[in-house]
């Protein structure tokens, strides 16, 4: 619950800074894990990931490990109408004993498919029933909620297909300077025939 309230305040502060950009999505808070789906602009996403990295590396943060499963660009429409969070009182037993029957790539695709189906379910929910539907997700659509054991496995797994917040920040904040081999040759080559 504390994580949900923190991110609700944080996203409101970010929206005050970036006034033309809205944030939609869903945060599922399990007993030991959090799954966060965010739909927003690239700049806002970078700020959210920076805050996630700070929370992960500072002593006062409440997140010990974080991984980014997917970043998608140019999505035609959003699944979520607003940003919300729900605490799921589902207790998982033997998280460490989870052994997937498929590869990490396939497990990530399965988790993302569940989250997309959950988004479709939520987007089709009438606004009058929205709060009741959100409060009873684990009863109405348990098949759309990622398993805590799978989330735990993905956090512990060291696979290149998932990004750490620090890797994402480095990718999008470092300058993009490329030196071509022709830039390192002296004298500079002259192009006798300028072709387009």
Question: How would you characterize this protein structure?
Answer:
By secondary structure, the chain is mostly helical. It has one domain. Helix content is 41%, strand content 9%. A three-stranded mixed sheet has the order 2-1-3, covered by helices on one side. Helix 2 (42-57) crosses helix 7.
Draw up the topology in text.
Blueprint: H1 2-17, E1 24-29, E2 34-39, H2 42-57, E3 83-87, H3 104-123, H4 130-135, H5 137-140, H6 148-156, H7 165-173
Parallel strand pairs: 1-3
Antiparallel strand pairs: 1-2
Helix pairs in contact: 2-7
DSSP helical segment count = 7
Structural category is mainly alpha
Q: Mean of residue pLDDT?
A: 86
What number of structural domains do the residues give? 1
Overall number of strands: 3
Instruction: Please give the order of strands in the largest beta sheet.
Output: 2-1-3
Helix content: 40-55%
Euclidean distance between termini CA atoms = 59 Å
Low-confidence segments, given as residue ranges, are none
Question: What descriptive keywords fit this protein?
Answer:
single chain; 196 residues; mainly alpha; three-stranded mixed sheet; 7 helices
């Amino acid at each position: 619950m504390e994580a949900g309230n923190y991110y609700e305040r944080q996203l409101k502060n970010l929206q005050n800074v970036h006034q033309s950009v809205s944030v939609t999505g869903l945060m599922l808070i399990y007993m030991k894990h959090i799954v966060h789906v965010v739909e927003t602009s690239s700049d806002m996403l970078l700020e959210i990931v920076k805050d996630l990295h700070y929370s992960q590396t500072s002593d006062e943060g409440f997140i010990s490990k974080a991984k980014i499963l997917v970043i998608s660009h140019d999505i035609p429409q959003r699944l979520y109408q607003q940003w919300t969070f729900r605490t799921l009182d589902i207790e998982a037993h033997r998280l460490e004993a989870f052994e997937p029957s498929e590869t990490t790539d396939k497990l990530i695709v399965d988790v993302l498919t569940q989250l997309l189906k959950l988004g479709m379910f939520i987007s089709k929910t009438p606004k009058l029933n929205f709060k009741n539907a959100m409060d009873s997700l684990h009863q109405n659509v348990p098949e759309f909620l990622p398993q805590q054991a799978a989330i735990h496995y993905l956090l512990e797994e060291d696979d290149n297909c998932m990004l750490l917040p620090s890797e994402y920040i480095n990718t999008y904040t470092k300058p993009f300077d490329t030196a071509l081999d022709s830039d390192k040759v002296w004298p500079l080559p002259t192009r006798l025939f300028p072709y387009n």
